[in-house]
């Protein structure tokens, strides 16, 4: 019985999360109220408050869940290859841009004027963390390439690529975006490994 209830709770929370994202995209974060969320989701306020203290907690959960998923997708290539050679990596070897496009209900929120507080910095911070704690460049200049200022350079560069791609309506294919990122990373070193 507990499993059925757990699935029902998760289904309710997913409906609230989806509704919240839709409303923020339409109206902007500051205009969305709990009453709007429950009305569109066809729940009552009591149901909402069983799961969340307010829209801020809902937003925080959405960001945390998405950053976990982004991390999983972004790090797939180095998980599958103990030493990843960017010179031979094919753009189809990474799914992160397919993932972003498929989950545009979240990523479109990054470029709206009245964005969810913390959503933009969460992605940038996740990219910094990836290059600080999960991926390491190999080679004779490894200590310099893996230094904090290079980590920030890479994180901001990839973050900028993603934002501009979203702003342009995902005009380049996910494979083309992957090719561009591989080239950006390859200029620093061709070999990477997972920490």
From TrEMBL:
InterPro entries: Homeodomain-like_sf (IPR009057), HTH-type_Tx_Regulator (IPR050624), HTH_TetR (IPR001647), TetR_C_Firmicutes (IPR039532)
SUPFAM superfamilies: Homeodomain-like
Residue spans binding DNA: 33-52
Every HTH tetR-type domain range: 10-70
Gene3D superfamilies xref list: Tetracycline Repressor, domain 2
GO terms of molecular function: DNA binding
Matches recorded under Pfam families: TetR_C_8, TetR_N
Superkingdom per UniProt: Bacteria
Keywords: DNA-binding, Repressor
TM annotation in the entry: none
PANTHER family according to UniProt: ACREF/ENVCD OPERON REPRESSOR-RELATED, TETR-FAMILY TRANSCRIPTIONAL REGULATOR
Annotated protein name in UniProt: TetR family transcriptional regulator
Species assigned in the record: Lysinibacillus telephonicus
């Amino acid at each position: 019985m507990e499993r059925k209830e757990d699935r029902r709770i998760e289904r309710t929370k997913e409906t609230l999360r989806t509704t919240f994202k839709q409303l923020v995209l339409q109206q902007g974060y500051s205009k969305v109220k709990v009453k709007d969320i429950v009305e569109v989701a066809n729940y009552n306020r009591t149901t909402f408050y069983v799961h969340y203290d307010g829209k801020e907690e809902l937003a925080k959960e959405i960001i945390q869940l998405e950053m976990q998923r982004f991390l999983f997708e972004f790090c797939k290539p180095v998980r599958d290859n103990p030493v990843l050679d960017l010179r031979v990596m094919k753009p189809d070897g990474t799914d992160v841009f397919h993932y972003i496009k498929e989950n545009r209900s979240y990523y479109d929120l990054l470029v709206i004027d009245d964005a969810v507080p913390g959503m933009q910095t969460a992605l940038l911070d996740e990219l910094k963390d990836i290059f600080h704690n999960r991926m390491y460049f190999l080679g004779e200049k490894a200590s310099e390439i893996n230094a904090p200022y290079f980590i920030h350079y890479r994180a901001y560069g990839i973050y900028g690529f993603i934002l501009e791609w979203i702003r342009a309506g995902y005009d380049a294919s996910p494979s083309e975006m992957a090719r561009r990122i591989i080239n950006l990373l390859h200029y620093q070193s061709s070999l990477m490994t997972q920490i």
